[in-house]
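On clarity, I found the account of how folds are encoded harder to follow than it need be. Since the whole study asks how a given chain folds, the encoding of that fold should be made plain. For illustration, here is how one protein appears when written out as sequence plus structure tokens:
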Amino acid sequence: MDKTRSIKTRDVVKIIKVKDHAKLHNHFIRQKKVNTKEDESVSEEAIHNIQSSGVCVLEKSVFKTKQEIKILKSKRISNKTVEIHPIENQKSKRYAEKVGVHKSQMRENRKNPIFLQMKKYVIDKKTSSEKTEKNKFQSFYYTYKLKNTNRIVEIIKKSVLKVDHLLSFGGSLVLMICMSLFIGCFSALANDSYSMPAYVNVSDEVLAYKDTIEKYCKQYEIPDYVSVVMAIMMQESGGKGNDPMQCSESGFNKKYAHSPNSITDPDYSIEVGVQTFADCLKQSKIKDPGDTNKLSLALQGYNYGNGYINWALSNFGEYTKANAKAFSDMMQAKLGTNGYGDPEYVDHVMRYVSITFRGGSNPNFNNVEAWVTKNPYARAGLYGQCTWFAWGRFYELYGYDPGFSGDGSSCVKELIAAHPDKFERSSSPKAGAVFSAIGHNHVGIVIAVKDNTITVQEGNLDGITNTFQDAKKDWQAKSYTLDQLKSIYGGVVFANPK
């Protein structure tokens, strides 16, 4: 019998698994140390904030944007063929170990101060928006800001189309781009920041009325606001005409018709104007001339009428540039006119207010932003140094970052580089100028210039770095001639406000 040795063969099936886009996507994100759950929550917080600002039309566009980003990521991953090993147990073990490592890394990432700061910004922005703007802000912006939101939507759409080539840099970069877009939208819609415009002198015509203004400011119990009333007159008429305060339509006008320019007595115009402004200050509940927000509310009320003050307080609790514009738009629609008042009246008036009134004659060390949180020298622990003092006083006087962070001798150069439209280099000073010593490492602020006398404020009299409590005493206000200042510091150069 012919025996044939049989050879059995085993059917081997090579398993090629179809890639799971969702799992690969998650794995990609884990490799880049990005917490997708946190990303998603931050994005949702940002989207909610945009909605709470009254920009309802952004909702669909933002969610569409998220979907488009996910599709782009999936398309990029799908360009590569992935072959899964048939031994599932080993793969699963390795995958579980890797996932465990990544989860640990992601927990550490959540503790990263940058990540926490970004998250806190979104949450704080949401809380602030809900508290100050309230629900009625939505209706105003839905009506009056629709055209602006459409523009923002287009910007976001264009940005999404260009984000694909950036995916190779990792999910963290994509997150930063998206957060920047959202924060940019917040800034564009809020438009609430208060900025101090550069100081401009009032005219000789206004100065001629100074004694009369002082008389009525004292009579109506606002003696600290003489410079502000002079600034109002400068903005209203430049001190010209028979109604220099442009207050014929005020309810305090009892002698003339309530029509434009009906007052023909400048003295009476000033009296009515001062009385009107005093009432605006009272309605705004201001207690300190340094309260710039309530002062802004009173100034805008002088331009619009007291109706604006009550409306702003009832609906928003304060003045903002945004609600000033919304009120103007609302009144235009109500009255059927092409314009209503000046929505930028506050900035237009404040440019004529003296530099010391804006920031006070002396430093206010309770201004935390100026002296602690935003001051780069404070963050470096350099309390009491001349640079720390100059930065803080500049912020008090102008309301924004001067842009210098180096030593005292370089501050003028850095300030002009940061704000070339607002400051210029000079060998002689103006009030509000920053000076740097050429021969010494020193910087200070020019508070006043009268004839040949220059009054400066400067820090670091003891030559050492102090504690914050000691630094608050380590400064002086002193007057020099220009020659004396040059001699003491081996030459000086000034960054003058334009």
User: Anything to note?
Assistant: The first strand starts at residue 423 and ends at 426. The mean pLDDT is 75. The radius of gyration is 32 Å.
